[in-house]
Specification:
The chain is an alpha/beta fold. The protein has a single domain, classed as Rossmann fold (3-Layer(aba) Sandwich), CATH 3.40.50.150. The chain is 29% helix and 22% strand. It has seven helices and eight strands. The relative contact order is 0.15. The structure holds S-adenosylmethionine (SAM). The site of S-adenosylmethionine has 20 residues, from β3, α4 and α7.
Length: 215
C-alpha cells in the first residue's frame, strides 16, 4: 500500500466531488465550520500545509481554508491538520481559480494568501498562472472591506507579470508593503518552498494588496 493511501483527510478534507453541482451556483464555505461567524482566511496552493498549520496554530479563533489542486498534497495537508486537531481548518480539493470565480460568495475572507504559486514560465503556458485579471477581480469581490491579498514569489518573470496585472486594477486595491507574519527568523511566510529557495539564496518578491471599497 502506498503511503498516500494511509492518509486520512477525516472531516478536514472537502473534495470537489462531494460539493453540490456547479449549476447550484455559489456556496458558503463558512458553513463548513462549527463557528461560521469567525474571520476566514484562505490559502491557495498550501502544498504540504506548513504555512497553514503554523497560521492556524497562531490564530485558533480564525477559520482557515486551504485550496489545493494536487490530490497528493490535498491528502497530505488535510491529514496533517487532522492529526494536529485543527478543527478550524478545511482543505478543499479543487481548482482555486475556478472555485473563486464560480462558487465563492462576496465579502467573506479577511486574507487570501498566495505563496510561491506555480510560475508556468513558458510563454504559451502563462495563461495557467493563478494571477490573471479575472483572479484579481474575484479576490476583490471575495475579500471583506479592508481585506488583503498577500502574494510572494521567487520568480522574476512571474513577478513582472504580477506587477503588470496589479497595475490594471489600481481602482480595486491599495498596494502595500508585505509584512512578515509570525514566521521563523529571516522568513517571510515560512512555506516549504520559501525554505528551499532560501537555502539556494534566491531573492523573493512580495506584495500586499488591500481591498479598496467599491465606489
Ligand atoms: C510551487 S507549489 C507552492 C506550495 C506552497 N505554497 C509553498 O510555498 O511551499 C504550488 C502549489 O499550488 C498548487 N496549485 C497549483 N495550481 C493550483 C490551482 N489551480 N488551485 C489550487 N492549487 C493549485 C500546487 O498543487 C502546489 O501545491
Amino acid at each position: 500500500m502506498s503511503s498516500a493511501r494511509k492518509l486520512d483527510v477525516g472531516h478536514i478534507g472537502v473534495d470537489h466531488a462531494d460539493l453540490p453541482p456547479i449549476d447550484a451556483g455559489r456556496l458558503d464555505p463558512r458553513l463548513w465550520f462549527a463557528s461560521p461567524d469567525r474571520s476566514l482566511e484562505i490559502e491557495i496552493g498550501p502544498g504540504k500545509g506548513t504555512f497553514l498549520l503554523a497560521a492556524a496554530q497562531r490564530m485558533p479563533t480564525t477559520n482557515f481554508i486551504g485550496i489545493e489542486w494536487a490530490a497528493e498534497y490535498y491528502r497530505l495537508a488535510a491529514d496533517r491538520m487532522r492529526r494536529h486537531g485543527m478543527d478550524h481548518v478545511r482543505i478543499l480539493h479543487t481548482d482555486a481559480a475556478d472555485f473563486f470565480h464560480w462558487r465563492m460568495p462576496d465579502d467573506i475572507a479577511t486574507v487570501i494568501h498566495l505563496y510561491f504559486p506555480d510560475p508556468w514560465p513558458k510563454k504559451r503556458h502563462n495563461k495557467r498562472r493563478m494571477v490573471q485579471d479575472r483572479f484579481l477581480i474575484d479576490c476583490h469581490r471575495i475579500l471583506v472591506s479592508g481585506g488583503e491579498l498577500r502574494i510572494v514569489t521567487d520568480h522574476a518573470d512571474y513577478w513582472g507579470w504580477i506587477d503588470e496585472h496589479i497595475d490594471h486594477h489600481t481602482h480595486l486595491f491599495d498596494r502595500c508593503p508585505f509584512e512578515a507574519v509570525g514566521a521563523g527568523d529571516d522568513e517571510i511566510v515560512g512555506t516549504n518552498f520559501e525554505r528551499k529557495y532560501q537555502r539556494e539564496g534566491r531573492p523573493f518578491h512580495a506584495v500586499t494588496l488591500r481591498r479598496l471599497d467599491r465606489a
